[in-house]
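lol ok so funny story. i was supposed to be doing the assay writeup but got distracted and ended up predicting the structure for this chain instead. priorities right. anyway since i did it might as well share w the group, maybe its usefull for someone
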Amino acid sequence: MLSTRVLLVQALLWLALLLPVSGHAGTVDPAASAPPVPRIGVVTMQPGEIFWERFGHNALVVIDPATGRATSYNFGFFDLAEPDFVANFIRGDMSYRLVALPFHEDMAIYRQEGRGVSIQWLDLAPADAKALADALAVNARPENARYGYDYFLDNCSTRVRDAIDGALDGVLERHMATPSEGSTYRTEALRLASPAPLMWLGFDIGLGPSADRPLSRWEEAFVPMRLADALREVRLADGRPLVSEEYEILPHRIAPEPQGSTRRWKWWALAGLVIAGVTVWLGRRRPRVLAALALSGWTLAGAVGALFLFIWFGTAHRFGWVNHNLLLFNPLCWSLLPGAWQLLRGRIPRRWFRRMLWIVAACPLVALLVYWVSALPQRHLHWIVLLLPVHAALAWTWGRRSRTRL
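and the output, tada:
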């Protein structure tokens, strides 16, 4: 059912169009003979609880002055049932599409989910408003609707941003070219994924150094809520604010948008030292227990590293390329598995096992050196200080000839 607020807005708009325009007797008001102008707004939806809803969403709504019909132009549609959807998702070759649908139908799902929705009405010149409405209608045709989705660079929010900017001949991009307040793709991804620990973990270890470049406000607008913030500050050429009116359509009834938090790398370092101490103790007192734990840990670390290599060389997920966490979650760990198995069976591994232990333990030191010398390092110091002591403790325990005893 269409919300009372939306019905009231549309009714008032239609009434305003029907009312005669006042003027001096005996004169003709040019505005009275002007063609009606569509009204255009940006609708921003707050984050939801499913992983693909964590970043929020937005759309453009166009009210047709001739009929009063409100149409939502939503760039966020994808089809889970399309052929090879999962394979395309893994490869980073996602296809999304623009769908034009009645505004009340688009809002129904957000009402059911309890997600807040607000609208910003744009004070566009008549020619710009008509150009934007016409461009959206053409874009929504089946032959034009699909586009190659990129999580950070080309998503539902950047499409809304670009559509407005096109109608304004670049005014929006020029205004938003200023630096953000320290945002990067990583900080925004981690902030919004923080209510889902596994999603947060995937972003934190899976994003490479490209995700740590400081963003402009234009780039930051890949997040719908950031775009809404930026639109409030835009001024048109004549000094008018771009947003003429803003209000809430649906209340937000679930957890609010997460705020940013600072990672305390010192606590991660302390945890790494504690784990390293336990590792050394187990190596002396319970070597087979440590061997079982090492066997599991090296298997997992090698698998994660292999996944990083696949993302780098086998997919279009460019923000996961050249991931320096390869030096921490090292595929070379798999070469240690035979030695761990021998230790678990009460045997002494061969010499190559000790050598590989020191090689694997040296890789986090390389990661630390790269972090120090890089002008814009990958922000993974917390992972370095957590895992470096652990790798070092394993090498110290089993990497010396005199200590490889059971």
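The longest strand covers residues 94-102. Residues 1-32 have pLDDT under 50 and may be disordered.
back to the writeup now i swear
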